[in-house]
Amino acid sequence: MIFPITFFKAFSKRSAATKSSITDSTDCKIDDKQDERKFKAQWKYPDLLAQVYIHVAGVYGLYLAVTSASILTSIWCVTMIYTSGFGITAGVHRLWSHRSFKAKLPLRILLAFLFTITGQKDIYTWALDHRVHHKYSETDSDPHDANRGFLFSHVGWLVLTPHPNVECKRAQIPMDDLKADAVVMWQKRLLVPLFAIFCIAFPVSVPCYFWSESLLNSLFISFNLRFAATLNIAYCVNSFAHMYGNKPFDRHISPTENIGVALTALGEGWHNYHHVFPWDYKTSEFGQKFNPTTHFINFMAKLGLAYDLKSVPTSIVANRAKRTGDGTWGFGDSDVEPTLIETS
């Protein structure tokens, strides 16, 4: 079993010796009796088998979509991918992880159901790891540290045991706001039956009932193919958007502006901006970027279901781009003069 782990490491951007010298605090190091460089991730076999099954079955679902299934089933699959995606982008990410806006109870319930359809664990666990990721990005404490390689940040972190610093930091991140949210804790407590109903039964039953799709086709397309596609779209934010693209707001960090990820992930690919201004509900410069999730939140605000939307003034964006960006900022000809304003 050594080869697969070595395969993950082959994509690493720095050596283990170099990485071990990067620390984010002294209170989360491995016990001094154990050389930090000797840490070796182990397979989490249930998670590994689950990922293998999801992806192999997803490929088979794609085959069925091309060869035997109704075109309506494929349309339903794509519709479900992008409708449920708002549960990730607007829900667990912008609302529950970053608190970049507030949502009334009906919207929180809707976003919780949409997120459950995606099958990506529970809201609380997802938000916890994302908060750790932002606070300790690209260090040993980052759950999907991009410095450990493309494959690790894309999917490897889910099937390998985490670095001890990750576990330590998870225990330190404040989560009282989510513990006080009844919707979040309800979804966490009932995740297994909710997953069975909303991630499997509901998507699979619709094609069978409404246009007499076969159960086999609907299972492998509406569940497996959809699930695999949704997962990989989300994974791309952790991998591609941390490695490939420009850095108009801060050239010193790993996250980038990646238009490919933005186009497929409902606007979540403008990642350099997001890591510089994580409290901005738009996660990008609104009006300049493709961002369906921002339009979704704005629509909910018009309905009175979303409120207290946080954003960053253009002058502050300009200051930061001119001070630390790589020179590719879209407003490069702005008359706003840079000042030493700390924004992150």
UniProtKB/TrEMBL annotation:
Please provide the record's keywords in A-Z order.
Fatty acid biosynthesis, Fatty acid metabolism, Iron, Lipid biosynthesis, Lipid metabolism, Membrane, Oxidoreductase, Transmembrane, Transmembrane helix
UniProt superkingdom: Eukaryota
Q: Which organism is it from?
A: Nesidiocoris tenuis
A Gene Ontology biological process annotation?
Answer: unsaturated fatty acid biosynthetic process
What is the recorded name of this protein? Fatty acid desaturase domain-containing protein
Family listed: Belongs to the fatty acid desaturase type 1 family.
Q: Which cofactor does it need?
A: Fe(2+)
Which InterPro entries does this UniProt record tie to the protein?
Acyl-CoA_DS, FA_desaturase_dom
This entry carries the following GO cellular component terms, namely: endoplasmic reticulum membrane
